[in-house]
Amino acid sequence: MTAKTATEPTGTRPFAPFEWMIAWRYLRSRRRETFISIIAGFSFIGIMLGVATLIVVMAVMNGFRTELLSKILGLNGHLIAQATESSFTDYRDVADRIAMVKGVKFAIPFVEGQALASGQGGALGVLVRGIAKDDLDKITLVSKGVKQGTLDGFDQGHGVAIGSRLAQNLGIALGDPVTIAAPRGNVTPFGVTPRFKSFPVTAIFSVGMSEYDNAFVFMPFGEAQAFFNKDGQASAIDIFTDDPDQVGALRQPIEQAAQRSIFVSDWRQRNVTFFAALEVERNVMFLILTMIVLVAALNIVAGLTMLVKDKSRDVAILRTMGATRGSILRVFFITGAAIGTAGTIAGFLLGVLVCRNIEEVRQGLSWVLGTNLYPPEVYFLSRMKADMQSGETTAVVIMALVLSLLATIYPAWKAAKLDPVDALRYE
User: Fold this and answer.
1) What is the extent of the structural domain holding 254?
2) Where does the ABC3 transporter permease C-terminal domain start and stop, copy by copy (predicted)?
3) Residue that finishes a domain, picked among 195, 230, 260
4) What is the pLDDT of residues 171-192, one digit of tens each?
5) Is there a domain that residue 75 lies in?
6) Is 278 found in the same domain as 255?
7) Higher per-residue confidence, 42 vs 138
8) N or C: which end of the chain has fewer CB within 10 A?
């Protein structure tokens, strides 16, 4: 025990002030250490950009999913009840009973059919949905999204409400007629012929999702029944719940409350492929972008290895002056960890700044590049939104810090293993 104490210094407490002082001196650039400082600078920038990119991309994909989900569930029911075995003639009573189920906000009967809408600018396939005025007011995405005209007197009139993009593509303004053709219309001795009818446009709405704004036409409920040959019937019932994620638990109570044979499907079944693809894309993007942080962490390894090689004489002198192997290890650990920690913090701040101004950043880049970076025809939504989730952002920051700290261990360990005799032999 005595011999070991004589040959191995006892050292000071871990992370003593002199260890921080030496680490800070190694971080500062000198003329003959410029190249090492450049590598450290690139490591810092790489980690900063990697963390910021990860935060921004994850937030944008979360925002895209959240916004898209809010549009889909804001216009369509969380569950849809369709009649089986017989026509849906008792839709009003069934809707009232379903609305009484705990967890259900309201139930809306509707008539729906595909049709062809034509105007001065051309013709497009549309989805015509017949709905009562009181029920349409409950769908706030439409009732509060009216940009031109009004929904007042919607039930009494013979007009329709169409999406803003549909109006633009058909060349239709408020008050203009839109001709709607249903493939199964009039029954004649020669068979079923298409039905054509013109309706004045009494309201133009925008829900902020290009696919819906370009495809939906809302028609008075009674008018839609007559137009689609569904006198006294409804196509289905849209059911809106308090919590869309709990629709599975409501399926059985709704089927029991209906008191008739119905088939109930929820939004997850109708959009399973789409949202599964989004989840896969999100996970793959996370793995790919993590490589940026990993490459930057490897730059820390390279920079610290070169620094250890350059400072081998200093390490030998410190060892002969009484510094322990642990002190040398901590000095270089602090040096590398400072780069990784500073880069992670800077990346976090940059990511938050970009996320808070993502739409302005998009518009600025679109103006500089002369192209639309977020075309609504491709991404469905008219605005880019970033939704930063605290758990996910924390995971990114922790992951970057762990990679940065792990990258410093090997070079610091090599520095601690340097033999003072070998390091000073050729000096």
Assistant:
1) 86-260
2) 287-420
3) 260
4) 989 889 999 988 776 666 655 6
5) no
6) no
7) 138
8) N
Residues in Cβ contact with 4 at an 8 Å cutoff, skipping those fewer than 6 apart = none
Find, among 59, 51, 60, 58, the residue nearest to 347 by Cα.
51
**Count: domains in the chain:** 2
For residue 8, being part of any structural domain is answered with no
Instruction: Report the distance separating Cα 38 and Cα 47, nearest Å.
Output: 14
pLDDT of residue 427: 54
**Residue 225 backbone dihedrals phi, psi, to 5 degrees:** -60, -45
State the Cα–Cα distance between residues 89 and 181, nearest whole angstrom.
Answer: 25
The confidence band for 348, taking pLDDT boundaries of 50, 70 and 90, is very high
Residues 210 and 279 reside in one and the same domain: no
CB 359 within 8 A of CB 385: yes
Dihedral sign for Cα atoms in the order 66, 68, 73, 79: negative
CA distance 272 to 247: 14
In our burial notation (b when 16+ CB lie closer than 10 A, e otherwise), range 45-84 reads ebbbbbbbbbbbbbbbbbbbbebbebbbbbbbbbbbbebe
51-103 pLDDT, tens digit per residue, is: 888 888 888 888 877 777 777 777 888 899 998 878 888 889 999 999 999 98
pLDDT over threshold 60, residue 32: no
Segment 196-234, tens digit of pLDDT: 888 999 999 988 777 888 889 999 998 888 888 888 889
Out of 229, 260, 291, a domain closes at 260
CB 385 within 8 A of CB 66: yes
Give the CA dihedral 128, 376, 164, 243, nearest 10 degrees.
60
CA proximity to 168, closest of 121, 205, 202, 200: 121
| C-alpha to C-alpha distances, 403 to 134, 260, 279, 303, 321, nearest whole angstrom | 57, 60, 25, 15, 33
The answer to whether residue 265 sits within a structural domain is no
What percent of the chain has a predicted confidence (pLDDT) above 90?
12
The span from the CA of 268 to the CA of 215, in Å, is 21
Look at residue 77 and tell me if it is in a domain.
Answer: no
Q: What is the mean pLDDT of residues 166-173?
A: 90
